[in-house]
Amino acid sequence: MANHDLHAHVTCVAAPATWLSGPSGQLTGGADGLYVEDRRVLARLEITVDGVAVAARDVRRTGAASAVFADVRGNLAIARNRLAEPLGGTETISLANKAGEPRVVTLAVAAATDFATTGAVRDGSTVDMVPLLAGARSGDGMSVRLDATPAPDEAGDALRWTVTLAPGEQWTVELRFTRTDVPPIPRAKRFSTLRVAAGDARLDALVRTGVQDLDALRRGDLYYSAGSPWYLTLFGRDALWSARLALPLGTDVAAGTLRTLAAHQGTATSAQQGTSAHQGASAEQDSPKQQDTSTRHDISYTGETEEEPGRIPHEIRREDAAHRLPPVYYGTVDATALFVCTLADAYRWGMRPDAVEALLPAVEAALAWLAGHGGLVTYRTTGAGLTHQGWKDSADGIQFADGRVASGTLALCEVQAYAYQAFREGAGLLDAFGRPGAERWRSAAADLADRFRAAFWCPGGFPALAVTGTGEQVDAVASNMGHLLGTGLLSPAESAAVAGWLTRLRSPFGLRTLARSSAGYDPGSYHAGSVWPHDTAIALLGLARDGHRKEAAALVGALLDAAGRFDFRLPELYGGDDDATPYPAACRPQAWAAAAGPALLVALLGLDVDIPAGRVTFDPLTPSPVGAFRVRGLKVADGLLDVSVSADGAVTVHNGPVGVAFLLADGTPAKIGSTSAG
Questions:
Q1: Do 544 and 567 meet the contact criterion of CB atoms below 8 Å apart?
Q2: How confident is residue 676, by pLDDT bands cut at 50, 70 and 90?
């Protein structure tokens, strides 16, 4: 993989498009570019005024999809207003004469494309640039158009305009870049209104930025694309966790994610690439047509899809953008259980019963896949596809305390917790809709819990990161154990033990993925000591649900401290050192990192939503680690919840969905207050 440093890049996102450049605004190489559907539409965009390159001195994001790059050259003000759109984007260049006399200015724009896949860019593969003066087409059928308004005076090696500006006059040209070989992509139908005001203003900034990024990462109303620039597509695990963490924004995206993944759920046993019945498909309603890849100019994909009946896919890309992995790849051990858990959560948050019921056949197939492992849910490292199939999927992501990398057949601790919860939640869904089989899955859950206790608890009193096929415990102390909390798998004593071990993993900015006591600890690595915001948020929610309030509050503060380091746009990951050192190639924005903000609100409120039972229960963290706060626009069923919490934990409900009882943890009704109070 090439050495990309994206931390200082300015990124504008409107899924499936992302546009990133350095702070100068120029697109000059490396990962710079405008990408649509994982292909680079624009690889070079260099602007000069009177022959001198324009390098912005003032840069600011004006939203998740937009930014302004400004410069002043004497009495000439230059601004580039950038906007990403689903099929491309626009760059509006403004020249303003601040002098008291006329001025003649020559603007030149040099643009080019290379049609590269994001995978090829990430690997550092290079191909020839194609000048972009009006339109261009690749050998495999990708096409790009540049529209300039007004039209240039010249179009030779670059587009040129010669402009006479009167005193105080401003002149503007709009450059529109569009990928034209894909069908129209619908925008999301609605956007979230979730807002919070707190004594600690950082909470509002984190939630507001996260919500904007989640809206920008939405593929219509179908799912959250995983992250920009490398993963701006559908990843099963990422999309499911993002939808779960972001349920305070509503159930629409969770429902779309579940439907889309169900449409690609495995029905056959894996065959070599090109033979799967699902291969090459994209998402549900807006599936793009496939391109002829016989003239592919980048590294092609290899290996098997790893499809199995009932299995939820790991990753789905257009065939013309697949890189190293097949276009539809099933190599994930956790997404299938998370599918069931996400549906159960969405049902409690108010997803329409008919929409839930339509997905129950997929739930039954998913449960059968989990049960088909015959005990612990495992995967095997084979050297093909992804080395590891949990969320720590890098080559050294699963290792022993002595630094040895685990291999062979592996059962991850968090996957057993997901599966346990899936069996129990799946049984509850079947009961709720009068379908048979619930007792089978409750029995499976009990059996899995027994197997987990027998296999995973290490002599030191903590759960192993994983267990090998021979029963050896992968004994590193790792953040994966935080995912066990709140699932029901642990007894109160076991939960308390895990909570205690998590304090040893805590950095000033979140949970380290691996303890500093491990031989393989590296705070700058991908999974062996770094901090991932979503990982910390999941553990935080589990701590709050299991009653470990002090530990949960400490992680709230850690994430807010980290958010301040990153202008409240949390990246995919950052260093596990005491400075939250940026990880150079981290995606930013990343959906499950952006969803940490809404997830914090659930933990702070101690929110337990159960719309089928007609109740919403509050058990806030007390004392509040953010001071008094008020949340507005939190979506529950068909209504919006407006609730405030005092610094000492007193709850007042100002508004909420009709027909729902608002309760405190002891079962007493919550105080009802004025909608204008606070």
A1: no
A2: confident
Amino acid present at 609: V
Tokens of 531: 């901090």
Task: Give a three-class secondary structure readout of 244-271.
Answer: HHCHHHCCHHHHHHHHHHHHCCCCCCCC
Cα gap 67→59, rounded to integer Å:
7
Which residues make Cβ contacts (< 8 Å) with residue 55, sequence separation at least 6? 24, 25, 26, 71
Written as one letter, the residue type at 488 is G
pTM exceeding 0.90:
yes
Query: How far is residue 211's CA from residue 192's CA, in Å, rounded to a whole number?
Result: 7
The predicted pLDDT at position 677 comes to 55
Per-residue confidence (pLDDT) for residue 185, from 0 to 100: 87
Q: Which residues are bridge partners to 189 per DSSP?
A: none
Q: Which helix (H) or strand (E) holds 424?
A: helix 413-432
Q: Which residues pair with 585 in a beta bridge?
A: none
CA distance 266 to 260: 12
One DSSP character per residue, 56-67 reads: -SEEEEEETTEE
Alpha-helical segments (H) within 476-565: 492-505, 533-545, 549-565
| Strand 52-53, strand 615-618: pairing | unpaired
- Round to whole Å and give the CA distance between 309 and 366: 8
Distance from C-alpha of 24 to C-alpha of 176, rounded to nearest angstrom: 20
27-45 pLDDT, tens digit per residue, is: 999 999 999 999 999 999 9
| Confidence label for 382 from pLDDT (cuts 50, 70 and 90) | confident
Whose tokens are 């020559």? That residue is: 106
- Predicted confidence at residue 295, as pLDDT, reads 26
Question: Are 630 and 582 spatial neighbours (Cβ–Cβ below 8 Å)?
Answer: no
Helix, strand, coil percentages in the chain from 3-state DSSP, rounded to 5: 25, 25, 45
| Beta-bridge partner residues of 447 | none
Can you tell me whether residue 105 is helix, strand or coil?
strand
